Amino acid sequence: MGRLSDWFAREKKKVGAMPKKQAVRYIWDYYKLWLISITAILAIIIFVIVRLVTNIPENWLYVVFANTRAEAATGSQLWKDFEERQGYDLKKKNLIFDDACYFDFLKNEARGNNYFNAFVALVETGTLDAITMEPDSLAALGQTGRLLDLRVDQSYGIMKKYEDRFIYYTPPEGSGYDEPIPVGIDISDSLLVTKYHLYSEKCALGVGAASKNIEAVDDFLQFVLGG
């Protein structure tokens, strides 16, 4: 500690004896790496503190719009229109729309597809509330168990109104299920097709198996179906 203080005293005396411009050049030439490193560390610390203070861990709703080239992410017109309708307080919770997802479970069960792996992570952490994609692909995705069976108690009271739109998948023999299971809702006539053009013809919506925001999913369905 004594050596460090002696060195600091010598450097302070040396720099103090220099003209201002020479002192600035000396400090930069000899200590710029230290200055850059310290600045970077401070920036990281400030960033982490800000994130910890302002981070909003919960969501009003998290929807993935799969296999579309249209703009549908957070901040898009679709997002703005829905947020305006609902009047969510975004200081309390997030409203997240994600359009960066491309996979088709009909093709090789999406093996090796990083987007599918990301989808799985969203479901298993309980983050995903809903996903939209082509009806056939959604029905195939249902066999993974990552879409909510729309007959279960937690959803049936809300989702029963869409019973005539249900999309089913047929379980394989020996699975213990004797009848098709509803895993999606056909919304081909919704604003996602007619106004926002996310899909050219058909699309369907499935609810994440671990969704905690089923009522918000229902609000979204009402919005896109013009209700």
List keywords for this structure.
227 residues, alpha/beta, 6-stranded mixed beta sheet, elongated
Q: What assembly state would you assign to the polypeptide chains in this entry?
A: single chain
Overall mean pLDDT: 85
The percentage of residues in β strands lies in 5-15%
Q: Cα-atom Rg, whole angstroms?
A: 27 Å
Shape: elongated
H and E string? HHEHEHEHHEEHEH
The helix content, as a percent range, equals: 40-55%
Terminal CA distance? 72 Å
**Which segments are poorly predicted (pLDDT under 50) over 5 or more consecutive residues?**
none
By DSSP, the count of extended strands is 6
Main-sheet strand order equals: 2-1-3-6-5-4
What class do helices, strands and sheet pairing give? alpha/beta
Instruction: Count every helix, treating DSSP H or I runs of 4 or more residues as helices.
Output: 8
Protein architecture, described:
- The chain is of the alpha/beta class and 227 residues long.
- The protein is built from 8 helices and 6 strands, in the order ααβαβαβααββαβα.
- It has helices at residues 2-16, 20-54, 77-86, 114-124, 135-142, 153-159, 191-194, 214-224, and strands at 59-65, 94-98, 130-133, 166-169, 181-186, 204-207.
- The chain has a 6-stranded mixed sheet.
- Strand 1, helix 3 and strand 2 form a beta-alpha-beta unit.
- The longest helix has 35 residues, at 20-54.
- The chain is elongated and about 90 Å long.
- The N and C termini lie far apart (72 Å).
- The relative contact order is 0.13.
- The model has no long low-confidence stretch (mean pLDDT 85).
